[in-house]
């Protein structure tokens, strides 16, 4: 007698390795069958309708079809749903009752990733998307002295933005990051630390190597500087990896899995060598942390070096609160922060580490903290694309409204790009403050 499917799973969600090297993974017919199976389950559930534009797009396709069921939706329209998924993982981690180990085994984000990979292999990707996800190339060129000034001027000028929209499809009204010629690596050249006086505590060695990330190096090096200052104020030596490539998250979201592998081959040996020398690893951007904690280990489950790096990669606030648990956090804050409201990044939330940012901010005397657990809709490149910008602004709207209603002294996000997107939605560009910057201010350093 067959078992009756349960309404929801009672077990904690688990992720299975991504079988991205198999022939079936790229088979269009097999993909369509799985898309139809999953979309049919989603259509009957609809709990994720408020998360992003992917689900309303799916449900509209079903509701406007002849039978009002998934079987009468043109399979060519399936990719309209895929286009709106930016792999935030919130449906998997916070909403879906049918994720593994449930027998239906839904992993919506990784199914969307598979569809993106099939699409990429079919050469159905725009030049714009390849360029926007080539963060190493763009950052290294745009940060060259003199050129960075020209780039920033063009990106801020109305005529330049109109040209970008007409030629590449980059929305003229979207907020774009600036590029610094004084990158973090140029600021910190030759400043490697020995870590000889590090004090271990719990799972932490007490010394960290900073994976600066493309964004933390080229676009907002001040946040990386704040991270270093806060960690060193807590007697945690900080060094930089000798060199680094993009973590691979932008290419993952594009579906270019071979490029992800190349980035992995460049980064993992260097990071594993640091781990072998006793260094823990941190990064200022949650998406990059998640890449090493989750996505690379799922893509390369049999690579021992990838797994070793995963075990020693931490979110900055996770690391500091682990130290606090063992009385190794400096709590001698000199300044209160008043009222703080911040958006918890999706890619930080799905790391399952708890509200470590809120916990640390709440340690500052005379400080109240309000957290927004809702997606900002930015996703690095989604919000700047002409065809998706309106959707991104719709998604960020409730977050911006919460910030506005809070009338707080400080607002921002664990993700610097999300924080900037929220500020842009409020017409307060540049007013956002990263939680690391707030902690540095509270220390008075």
In short:
The chain has 445 residues and is α/β, with parallel strands linked by helices. It has helices spanning 28-45, 54-63, 78-83, 90-95, 108-121, 127-132, 135-142, 147-156, 158-168, 184-187, 214-219, 221-233, 249-254, 257-276, 286-299, 304-311, 316-325, 346-349, 356-361, 389-406, 416-425, 435-443; strands spanning 208-210, 238-240, 280-282, 313-314, 338-343, 367-372, 410-413. The strands form two sheets. The protein has a four-stranded parallel beta sheet, with helices on both faces. The protein has a three-stranded parallel beta sheet with strand order 6-5-7.
Word description of this protein:
With 445 residues, this protein is α/β, with parallel strands linked by helices. It has 22 helices and seven strands. Helix 12 packs across helix 22 (435-443) and helix 15 runs antiparallel to helix 16. The radius of gyration is 22 Å and the shape is globular.
Any chance you could write out the topology, listing elements then pairs?
Layout: H1 28-45, H2 54-63, H3 78-83, H4 90-95, H5 108-121, H6 127-132, H7 135-142, H8 147-156, H9 158-168, H10 184-187, E1 208-210, H11 214-219, H12 221-233, E2 238-240, H13 249-254, H14 257-276, E3 280-282, H15 286-299, H16 304-311, E4 313-314, H17 316-325, E5 338-343, H18 346-349, H19 356-361, E6 367-372, H20 389-406, E7 410-413, H21 416-425, H22 435-443
Helix pairs in contact: 1-5, 8-9, 12-22, 14-16, 15-16, 20-21
């Amino acid at each position: 007698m067959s078992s009756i499917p349960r309404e929801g799973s009672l077990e904690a969600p688990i992720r299975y390795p991504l079988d991205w090297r198999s022939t079936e993974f790229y088979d269009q017919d097999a993909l369509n069958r799985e898309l139809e199976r999953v979309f049919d389950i989603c259509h009957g559930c609809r709990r994720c309708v408020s998360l992003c534009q992917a689900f309303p797009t799916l449900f509209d396709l079903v509701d406007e079809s002849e039978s009002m069921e998934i079987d009468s939706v043109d399979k060519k329209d399936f990719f309209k749903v895929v286009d709106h998924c930016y792999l935030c993982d919130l449906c998997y981690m916070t909403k879906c009752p049918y994720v593994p180990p449930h027998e239906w085994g839904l992993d919506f984000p990784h199914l969307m990733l598979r569809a993106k990979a099939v699409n990429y292999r079919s050469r159905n990707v725009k030049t714009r998307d390849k360029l926007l996800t080539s963060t190493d190339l763009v950052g290294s060129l745009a940060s060259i002295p003199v050129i960075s000034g020209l780039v920033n001027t063009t990106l801020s000028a109305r005529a330049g933005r109109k040209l970008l929209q007409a030629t590449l499809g980059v929305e003229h009204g979207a907020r774009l990051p600036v590029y610094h010629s004084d990158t973090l690596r140029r600021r910190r050249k030759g400043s490697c630390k020995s870590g000889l006086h590090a004090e271990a505590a719990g799972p932490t060695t007490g010394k960290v190597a900073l994976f600066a990330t493309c964004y933390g190096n080229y676009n907002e090096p001040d946040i990386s500087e704040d991270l270093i200052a806060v960690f060193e104020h807590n007697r945690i030596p900080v060094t930089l990896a000798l060199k680094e490539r993009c973590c691979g998250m932008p290419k993952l979201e594009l579906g270019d899995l071979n490029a992800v592998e190349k980035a992995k081959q460049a980064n993992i040996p260097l990071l594993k060598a640091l781990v072998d020398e006793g260094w823990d690893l941190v990064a200022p951007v949650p998406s990059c942390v998640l890449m090493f904690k989750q996505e690379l280990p799922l893509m390369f489950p049999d690579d021992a070096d990838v797994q070793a790096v995963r075990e020693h990669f931490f979110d900055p606030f996770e690391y500091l609160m682990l130290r606090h648990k063992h009385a190794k956090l400096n709590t001698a804050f000199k300044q209160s922060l008043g009222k703080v409201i911040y958006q918890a990044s999706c890619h930080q939330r799905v790391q399952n580490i708890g509200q470590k940012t809120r916990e640390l901010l709440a340690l500052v005397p005379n400080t109240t903290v309000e957290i927004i657990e809702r997606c900002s809709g930015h996703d690095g490149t989604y919000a700047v694309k002409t065809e998706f910008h309106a959707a991104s602004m719709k998604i960020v709207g409730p977050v911006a409204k919460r910030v506005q209603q809070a009338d707080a002294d400080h607002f921002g996000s664990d993700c610097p790009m999300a924080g900037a997107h929220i500020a842009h939605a409020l017409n307060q560009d540049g007013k956002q403050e990263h939680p690391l910057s707030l902690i540095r201010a509270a220390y008075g350093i």
